[in-house]
Design goal:
By secondary structure, the chain is α/β, with parallel strands linked by helices. It has 2 domains: 126 residues, 5'-nuclease (Rossmann fold); 54 residues, no CATH class. Helices cover 55% and strands 7% of the residues. A 4-stranded parallel β-sheet has the order 2-1-3-4, sandwiched between helices.
Amino acid sequence: MAVSARYTAILDACVLYPRLLRDVLISLAHADLYTARWTEEEIEKEWTVALLENKPGSELRIAHAVEQMRTAIPDCLVVDYESLTETLDLPDANDRHVLAAAIRGNADAIVSFNTKDFPSKVLDKFDIELQTPDQFVLNQLMLHPPRALGAIKKMRLRWERPEISATDMVSLFEKRQLAQTAAHLRDVLELI
């Protein structure tokens, strides 16, 4: 197992399910701003199965998205975390695998919308913090402005069908629960 000296974050299934959020998180990791990690058997399976249930017939598109993610982030999958799962205590037992992956994957943070499911009193024992996607993306923009803005611009330019303006992308960020990030990006539209 490779251990990164860079900041490492476990991406929960709920942040990988929405296309925009998945794309921005993977784009920032691909730009070497942090190490993105998840599990195949639980996190990846959870968001792909949910997406397939909501968009029947999209198997090929989902498989292609997974392949692109794994290609962009070669060491993304955390393995051998399962034995830790049963030893952990969280408000929702179904989220223990995420914390187990964070521990095994030497993560600094878990990125999730499920803030109530990962109490700091539990995460602090493992020196792991919880960040919402909005906090996490904004932190990347503040810590690494040129590279983070460049990654977001490259992502926007990849969206050819339909092509999307910087203003429209910022509006999408806001609609997708990234209000702080959107507010920051409005001030630097010419850079994205």
